[in-house]
Amino acid sequence: MAAKRVRQWLKRRRMTLLDVPLWLLGMFAAVLWFAPFVWMVSTSFKPPEDVITPTVEWIPRTVTLDNYAVVFERPIFTWAMNSIIVATVATAAGVMTGALAGYALARLRFPGKGTFFFVLAASIMIPAEISIVPLYIAFLSVGFLDTYPAIILPMIPSVLAVFIFRSFFLSFPSEIEDAAAIDGAGRIATFFRVALPLARAPFIASTILLLTANWNVYLWPVLVTLSDEMKTLPLGVAAFSPTVGDFVRLEGFGPAMAAITVLSVPSLLFFWLLQRYFIEGFSRSGIKG
Amino acid sequence: MLSSSTGSRYRVRGARWRGERIDWSGYAFIVPFLVPFFLFIVAPLAFGVIVSLTDWRIAQPPEFVGIENYQRALEEPLAWKALGTAIRYTVLIVPSVTLIGLVLAMFVNQRWPGYGLARVAFFSPYITSATVIGLVWVWMLDTNSGIINQYFGVRIPWLTSTTWSWVGVSIATIWWDLGLAFVLFLAGLQNIDSEVREAATVDGASRFQAARYVVVPLLRPTLSLVLTLQVISTLRIFSQIDLMTSGGPSASSMSIVYYIYQYGIQRFDLGYAAAVSMLLFVVILVITIAHRRLIREQI
After folding, report:
1. Which of A153, B56, B105, B231 could form a disulfide with B186 if both were Cys (CB 3.0 to 4.6 A apart)?
2. Do B129 and A36 touch (CB under 8 A)?
3. Could you tell me which of A115, A108, A110, A123 has the C-alpha nearest to residue A160?
4. How far is CA A243 from CA A38, B159, B170, B242, B244, in A?
5. What is the ipTM of this complex?
């Protein structure tokens, strides 16, 4: 009787008895993969004397918010505000310019289009790290360091956004736009009133990709921010690192874990809520700051 | 008079290109993208070539030195050491990410109970910032009190010895980067028609045989994409090193980009830093082109 029920249970889940060990192994790997986040949160709630224990303790013996108090002594809100400004402006500009250019590549006919597409495709091979020295010199010589434009401007152009919109419009029928054109709407009016509202999927995909990259970007802001007030969240939080040269301050781990909990929880929640869009978006290509 | 001017205006508006009417508004559509694209991607590349041929420091005006910076890069032992470390990172990280990513994607693709949660777990690290990765692994890999050494009952100095530092950084990087390989493989697996796999099973192939002879060959394009993306991203490694080891101890975990940063920018030796950047660019270019060739041959 019990055997039959087990068999039915397995069948409903498209498994055989032999799959069970594999399934357990896979789920164990998932738990293992997620464990660092749990360890981070667990440590963040521990008082200093409980952070280092002879055996591993996943659940804090006493829960304290002291580490968070230490974190909020620093200008966390200023850094968060900077990150919000930088990520939103860069993403909005990247998606909009990408949508316009992608639409032109898919729908409009003009001399030089082929060259434009070729240059774009070739530019994918230019990694951002190559440009940091010349860009640094340029921003230094115009006296732009430590400002929002210095952080944001180089992050704006996104070839990936162009390609995502181009491939969407190439496979999307243009009848509705043609109807609007017959009604006398110009190309630009047609784009904003008809085409863009229809391009929901590429809009979401490119927004998610760019927002993640722009929220996490590290190298370029490290170079161009000088003052504490201009730091973005990943930069500001990095200062909680307990490593000083080769020396590690052990009492610093509590606040450090609290700081990165504050930093990571919003993006993790955002991902969990919009999981499907994230996975779809990222499976189109890979970018990271 | 009136009619002829109307006529000429009409001719411009109705101009043709390759037999089709030209949409002049096309330029209005691409200009907002083109301006920042040229200013921040194309121009810096050209300017970088110029900078790499000069002795460019902040205090004094730049001085043309020809290929001296490139010669210096090829003679500098530390530059070679950074290249060697970069190769070590590639040899450890790329196969690990690819293999683990493929196996985990195959597992999640079975859609057994809990696959949704497993998918979240495997992808989560990828969307968090370098700071999170760096700090959490500095804590977990701590020699005396880190959870890894505690569980294995060892005292490996993961981040503080010249033998282990690059391994410690690699572990954190594998955890961080796996998510992308994982979703790319997952998308690739979903594209393979389930009928193909069923046909193989009906023909008497075991699940392992079906995976080996049916799924893996069909996954080739994804595999090649993952490998290329991962090689390039490993060559570009920077932030986790800055956060975990600052390239040390004794430059044992220093990548090429970190070398550019530390020995070029922090010491304001910008001409030299630009030259090393160009050399890195050439390496990445060769890998990308080789990848394209490979793809074309397969098709």
Report:
1. B105
2. no
3. A123
4. 21, 10, 18, 11, 8
5. 0.89
